[in-house]
Amino acid sequence: MKKRTIIYLLSMLTSIILVSSACKKKDENIGTPALTFKTLSSNDLLEFSDSLNVTFSYEDSDGDIGFYEADSSSVYIQDKRLSKPDLYYIKPLNPPNVQPFIKGDIQLGLKNMFMLGSGTTEKTSFTIWLKDRKGHISNSIVTPEITIHR
C-alpha cells in the first residue's frame, strides 16, 4: 500500500512539472515576432549595379516591432559569405502605447550587390531575423540562392 502511494505521488509530481514547464514555454513565446519569406526581386544580379529587394511577412502578438530611436536596429540580414549581419532600422509599426496584434509585409532594398571572389559569378543567400522593442528575437528565414555576375 505504501509503495502504491509513493508511486502515485511521484507520477502526480511528474505530471505537475510537465504541465508547468509546457505553460512556461508558451508564455515565453508570447510577443515573439514570426517571419515568413515572400519574394526576391531577382535571383540574378549584376555586381555594383543591381539592387535586391527582399519581401517578408511578419506577425507579432504584442505589436512592438520597430524602434523609436533611429540608431536602434530591428532587422538583421546575414549574407552567408560574411561573418556579421547588416543591421536595418524600422520605425515602430504601431503608435506609442498601442500594442495590438499586428501583421503585414516588410520590403527591404539591399543596394549594390558585390562579389567577394575573383570569378565571374558568385552565389549567396541571406538569413533574416528581427528583434522587437522587448528584445524578443524572431525565427530566422533564409532567402533562395541568388547569383551575382561580374
Task: Provide a descriptive summary of the structure in words.
The protein is built from 1 helix and 10 strands. The chain is α+β, with helices and mostly antiparallel strands and 150 residues long. It folds into 2 domains: 29 residues; 119 residues, Immunoglobulins (Immunoglobulin-like, Sandwich). A 4-stranded antiparallel sheet has the order 5-4-8-9, with no helix packed on it. Strands 1-3-6 form a 3-stranded antiparallel sheet, with no helix packed on it. A 3-stranded mixed sheet has the order 2-10-7, with no helix packed on it. The radius of gyration is 22 Å and the shape is elongated.
Ordered list of secondary-structure elements with their pairings:
Layout: H1 2-29, E1 34-40, E2 44-46, E3 52-60, E4 75-79, E5 86-88, E6 102-110, E7 121-124, E8 126-130, E9 141-142, E10 146-149
Question: Mean of residue pLDDT?
Answer: 85
Q: Please indicate the count of domains.
A: 2
The N- to C-terminal Cα distance equals 81 Å
Helix content: 10-25%
Q: Give the CATH topology of the largest domain.
A: Immunoglobulin-like
What's the multimeric state? single chain
The biggest beta sheet reads: 4 strands, antiparallel
DSSP strand content:
25-35%
Overall CATH class of the largest domain: Mainly Beta
Q: Indicate the structural class.
A: alpha+beta
CATH 2nd-level architecture of the largest domain: Sandwich
Sequence stretches where pLDDT stays below 50 over 5 or more residues: 18-25
